[in-house]
User: Fold this.
Amino acid sequence: MRTLVFYVVLGMLTGGTSWAGGPPEIKSRSAVVLDAETGDEIFSKDADEIRPIASTTKIFVAMAVRKELELDGWTEITKLDARYANGGARTRLDIGQTFRNKDLLRAMLIASDNRAPTALARAAGMDPDGLVAAMNALAKDLHLKRTKFTDPTGLRGNVSTAHEMALALRAALQDDTLRAVMQQDSADIESKDHYAKIHYGSTNQPLVAKRWDVIGGKTGYTQQAGYCFITGVRLDERKLVMAFLGADGKLSRFGDFNRLAAWLDRGAPGAKVTTGKRPARAEPATASESRRRVATP
Assistant:
């Protein structure tokens, strides 16, 4: 049975009060909760275990292309985009159709359309290999030492940890445009010739359910990665980022989120403070700082 380790910043959650009970059982293989303002780790389950991350990859795509992306520009979907999306979920972006770049961001982040990453890269002046290189450079800028990319969609390869994916989401949510897109529970987009009219619904079920004040996130799934989910949430005035990797069931990751959100909302009864020291972590750069330093071909 996997060892659970719980980290709570004293006074931040419990006010020094001793609680009865304990934290909820988390079904995802790896999970973490971080304070979005400070980066402090509040809850952890195997959070440094390196795992495939599936389509949660796409927050790195979004951050990597933002510097050179003209949001109101137009980009055509090509056979190259279809080739890189092969093996993924059904796409709504047809070859030969042209869409605004801001709508391709919506297609990618709201509904995880796999033809969008390479199309957005092309709009930003990168080929697929250049995009992968920019994503790896971004991970380096954010001091994410266990995060590696080999594929622009997340369908093949790409690994990280729950802790590092939470830090990455923290950086992505600092970008006003990306945060606004990830906060949408649906979006309607239209091709340049008005032939294609597409309605996308968010795969972020807690965002759609509106039980909690969700401030954006991303889902992912491959057979190798299992079901993954990264998300931000506001509880009272405190902003948190959470990551769940390797759930066996599609709904398990969302159940994990709901259980942890409810536990934290009650004041995290039964939480334990670590008695050992974790390896020191460098403070990640903000999303805007990282975008300024990422080199593009």
User: Anything to note?
Assistant: Residues 143 and 282 are 6 Å apart (CA to CA).
